[in-house]
Design brief:
Length: 410
């Protein structure tokens, strides 16, 4: 009989492609897979259902949407805020671990209940709110567990509340990481950071995707830039791209796919009209992860502008980069340590500039605008890099994940 694996995320299916790919890979390898996720955002819930229609594994949803599950939304919110208040008053390192966990993960108890509701032979999960639940749920079932650290959680936030969040993350990470049978991480530098801090180095599994190339297109005409994320908001470096286009005065298009914060989208449009009137700013709705590579087809540059102010942003390699490459699209990267190291491997498929250096970025965009042949060469190199190494089916990504399970479950 096939081994039973429970895959857990505290987010939506459509906003956690790492757990979605893990579930698909395990199902394809012959394991019996049960996936646990949550529901709390309307647009993501609609995307979740579209994603689920294409899969055969079992799916359990924990609903705490403010409309469809108002009671759960209220009770978990009270518990979450109460635990945070206790941790803030007493200190994150001094409150009982059970309080720290509930101040870090709003849905901890509900996730644990879902995990133990059916038998499993192994539990694997990621996202901040699922880490402690995976460990506790596996313990109650009497089975082993694995953890995924897509980000360096104890240094991934900024602004108000980040100090408490990071301190609580440390409590959780230090408790669960040493107990895990194995751990995975989203980039080599994130894996190194965990090794330095806790003495356990996760296996890096990049945020790569299956290759899906479109037919080669004419690279002449206005420069077409593309960026996507879950939310369109401040701190993404988008203003620098707009200012650079305005500085060199070229005709270009900047396509943005995300759920916009309305006030920010208005401000960004006003900024573009003021500093880059020759730029067309085009907004697109979010789409399920299964379509993201396809939707990247045809652009000249995929933009990944991490500003590096937060440590996690200096260490991470996000979904954007590998989505672009899987579509055969060259990447425009800020020179964070992780992205600069990747750019060295990508060669002409990557163009790098220092965060905030609008002058350098303007020179880059001017060159790309003036030399369509440069775009063609970079697109060819992006395809070559994706086929050579940067795709999900590679032995060091999907293969590494399946090998970890094979070592545990046979």
């Amino acid at each position: 009989m096939s081994a039973r694996v429970c895959v857990v995320t505290a987010g939506h299916l459509s906003t956690c492609p790492r757990m979605l790919k893990a579930a698909d890979a395990l199902q394809g390898a012959g394991y019996r897979v049960r996936v646990i996720s949550t529901r709390h955002v309307n647009w993501a819930w609609a995307a979740d259902q579209r994603v689920r229609k294409l899969r055969q594994w079992e799916w359990r949803v924990i609903d705490y949407d403010r409309v469809s599950a108002r009671g759960t939304q209220l009770t978990t919110g009270v518990r979450f805020r109460g635990a945070q208040a206790m941790a803030l008053a007493a200190g994150a390192s001094r409150v009982p671990l059970s309080v720290g966990i509930r101040g870090y993960s709003r849905m901890h108890d509900e996730l644990v209940s879902a995990i133990v509701s059916e038998p499993a032979d192994f539990v694997y999960g990621g996202t901040t709110g699922a880490l402690a639940a995976v460990a506790e749920g596996a313990g109650r079932l009497g089975v082993r567990f694995g953890l995924d650290f897509e980000d360096f959680h104890s240094a991934e936030q900024s602004g108000e509340g980040s100090e408490l969040a990071h301190a609580l993350a440390e409590r959780v990470e230090s408790d669960v990481l040493s107990k895990a049978t194995f751990a995975t991480a989203g980039s080599p530098m994130i894996a190194d950071a965990y090794a330095t801090k806790y003495g356990v180095r996760p296996t890096e599994i990049h945020n790569t995707f299956p290759v899906d190339f479109a037919a080669a297109s004419d690279r002449r005409g206005p420069l077409r830039l593309y960026w996507f994320s879950q939310t369109l908001g401040p701190g993404r470096g988008l203003e620098d791209v707009i200012a650079a286009v305005g500085q060199c005065g070229i005709a270009a298009e900047f396509h943005l796919r995300a759920r916009p914060i309305p006030a920010y989208a208005t401000d960004l449009t006003s900024f573009q009209a003021r500093v880059a009137p020759s730029l067309a700013l085009v907004f697109h709705d979010p789409e399920p992860p299964d379509r993201m590579v396809e939707l990247a087809h045809g652009y000249d540059l995929g933009v990944s502008t991490e500003n590096g102010a937060v440590l996690n942003h200096r260490l991470c390699l996000g979904n954007k980069i590998f989505t672009y490459l899987a579509a055969g699209v060259p990447v425009l990267l800020t020179a964070t340590p992780a992205q600069a190291a990747l750019a060295a491997d990508l060669g002409p498929a990557a163009t790098v500039y220092e965060p905030g250096d609008v002058d350098a970025l303007a020179s880059i965009l001017q060159r790309w605008n003036d030399h369509p042949s440069l775009r063609c060469v970079a697109a060819q190199q992006a395809r070559a890099a994706a086929l050579r190494r940067w795709h999900w089916e590679h032995d060091d990504d999907r293969g590494a994940l399946l090998n970890a399970f094979e070592d545990v479950l046979g």
